[in-house]
Each structure stands twice: as C-alpha cells, then as structure tokens.
Design brief:
- Helix content is 1%, strand content 70%.
- It contains 1 helix and 13 strands, in the order E-E-E-H-E-E-E-E-E-E-E-E-E-E.
- It starts with a strand and ends with a strand.
Length: 267
C-alpha cells in the first residue's frame, strides 16, 4: 500500500507492506512475518518564501524519512529444530533528516540518522542497539558534463548486551566526466575506519574503482528504431584490514578486478 500527497510545495509519501514467508504449513520450518511502514516528507523551504526573482537558493530543502520494520518468527518448538534464541522477534525504527542547499553549480547537505533496534526475543530481550550517524555532503558541476561529489560521515553504534560502542568514520568521493559526446570517465573512492571503545576490535576498508565507457553508436531523438551499443573497461581495487581479540595478528585482504563488457540494445 502506498499513498502520495502534495500539499502546496510539500510532498508526503506513506507506505506499508506485510510479508509472510514459508514453503508450506510445515511444523519443522521457520515462518517469518514482516511488517514494514515508511513515511517521507519533503519541504522546499525556498518555495514557502519566494522573492521577486523566485525562491532563494540559500533556503534549503528539508527531507524527513521514517522507516519501521517488525520481524517476528514462529515455529513449533516441540520438533527440536529450533529454540527461542534462534526465532527472530525484533522491531527496528530509523529516523533520517536531510537538509540540502543548491546555489548555482554547488550543492551542500547535512544528514542526521537515528536508529533503534528493539530485540524482543525471550532470552535476548536486553540485546538492543542504538545507532546515530552524521554526514556532510558536497557536490559541484563545474562543467555541463562533469559531476563531482564528496561525503564525510561518522556513525556511533551502541550495543547493550554485551555492552560495546563501535565508532565508524567514512570518507567517499565520486567524479564523472563526459569529455566527449560518446566517452565517459567515472571514478569512485571509499574509505571506512571502525573501532570499538576498547580498542581491541578495528576494521578498515579501502575501495577504489575507475571506468571508461564508450558509446559505439549515436542515436538521435527522432530515430524510432535502431541499435544502441556501449562498451566499458573497469578497474577496481579493494583492501581490508581487521583486528579482533580472537585473532592475534592483523588480517589483511586485497583484491584487484579488471573487467570489460559490451552491451547491445534494440529499439
């Protein structure tokens, strides 16, 4: 079920979903029932206070999102296949608020995320967790065919049972440049660093990739039928490092990927 409403410059979207999974009514199989609700409200503040030349670009657009998910499992415990510990029963709620400014070719935004996981299992009712995240986003279009974007964020997750606090910092950057009408170059970079409050567990990751895309055929707006072809070449690199109390040495993993492909479309 989905409902969309427009109130002047504001927009509201509501949704609800129910799902039940099981092959059949078999006593030895776990049945999970999921209920999801979401709500999104968008408010362009500049449209509420228009000036003589239109909305001020210095007034932001505000977006609020609410997501709630309830997951509950049921099974015949007399079969011995499952215990209460393995039957899911939890409710997760996430609030997110985003404020974005667009001035000319520049973009700036801030996002706040607050999430709660309420564990309702009989033997793990105290194993709840809370997550709070902050992120600053910036972007620019210095050329009509070039897009630049960057994001810096931090997230703090508190687990109640056992009590741990994990802090994760993230930096990301993206760039896309169509330097000809048929050729596009894109690059992505992601860095994450997570560590718990004891300093015994730490995970870092680096992911970078670059791709070059060639359009082998050029189509026009008036063309009704034809063939569209596109080829790409992509290089990617990932590296992860992890340390935990269960491993005396730091574990390092690296991966290199080189791929290419060809896409044909008939229209």
């Amino acid at each position: 079920l989905e409902i969309n409403t427009i109130l002047g410059p504001a927009a509201i979207q509501l949704g609800a979903q129910t799902q039940r999974d099981n092959l059949d009514k078999l006593a030895a199989l776990l049945t999970t029932r999921s209920h999801r609700q979401n709500a999104t409200a968008t408010l362009p503040v500049g449209a509420l206070f228009p000036g003589k030349e239109g909305p001020s670009p210095f007034l932001p657009q505000i977006v609020y999102t609410l997501q709630r998910a309830e997951q509950k499992g049921s099974v015949n415990l007399e079969t011995g296949e499952f215990t209460e510990t393995f039957v899911p029963n939890q409710v997760s709620t996430t609030h997110a608020a985003t404020v974005d400014w667009t001035v000319g070719v520049f973009r700036l935004g801030y996002r706040l995320t607050v999430g709660v996981i309420d564990n309702r299992q009989d033997e793990r009712a105290a194993a709840d967790s809370n997550v709070t995240g902050h992120a600053i986003q910036a972007g620019a279009n210095p050329l009509p065919t070039m897009q630049l974007a960057a994001e810096v964020g931090t997230e703090r997750q508190r687990n109640d049972d056992p009590f741990t606090v994990l802090t994760t910092n993230r930096v990301a950057a993206q760039a896309t440049w169509g330097f000809t009408t048929l050729t596009t170059l894109a690059a992505n970079l992601n860095l994450t660093d997570g560590e718990d409050d004891t300093g015994q567990t730490r995970n870092t990751a680096l992911a970078a990739d670059a791709s070059l895309t060639f359009r082998l055929s050029k189509t026009t707006k008036d063309q009704k039928h034809g063939v569209s072809a596109q080829a790409f070449l992509r290089y990617g690199f990932t590296e992860s490092k992890s340390r935990s109390p269960f491993s005396p040495d730091e574990v390092v993993r690296k991966q290199w990927i080189l791929s290419s492909g060809l896409t044909l479309s008939l229209f």
